[in-house]
Amino acid sequence: MHLVFDVNETLLDTGALDPLFKRWFGTDAARSEWFLTLQETWMTANLVGEFEPFADLARSALRQLGAKHGVAIAVGDEQALVEAILSMPAHADSAAALAQLREQGHTLTALTNSALKAAHRQLDNAGLSGYFDAILSVESVGRYKPSPEPYRHAASHWGVATAELIMIAAHGWDLIGANAAGLRTGFIARPGKAMDPQLGSVPDWQDDDLARLVQRAVAQ
Q: Can you list the alpha helix ranges (DSSP code H) found in 74-209?
């Protein structure tokens, strides 16, 4: 079975960025605000048809947050954020869940909005890269998730229909996009993440434990 995993927040713990945001803004809650601003930035890029590298958007979102709160953001701060993103640790349940899937013979793909080179560094640093049969980035199609192109790219990589893929993510927008492209979906309820319970067909499975979630998905 083909399982496709989002990376940031789904497999990797963005909470590791909190000390930076606490230093800059006086509260680690600013990290969530920054990530929402980052999402808005790449969604806008999709809408206007202008693709920019993920790291540039991450820097832009930090500058926007600084302007909003009256905090001066230096170039060194921007670089510190980018470097911290590359070294985020895995969630406690990520490695065991991926290892079990590998032992069962499933095909595992990482599909991320991060740049390809950055994604390899992220997964290497988190000790997860060896579990994947492929690491794919949206930069190959010049469109960010949840546009359909990244999901179709993953299917094309393996020469299968999108209906043969299961997308695992901690973001409702990612799973809605995957579902619209024909994938089945599994929602991992990371802290602070939730999906509208009235959406109906999205997701197909959900859980707050990654190993339990993926085993439910592959049992179907």
A: 75-86, 94-103, 116-125, 148-158, 172-180
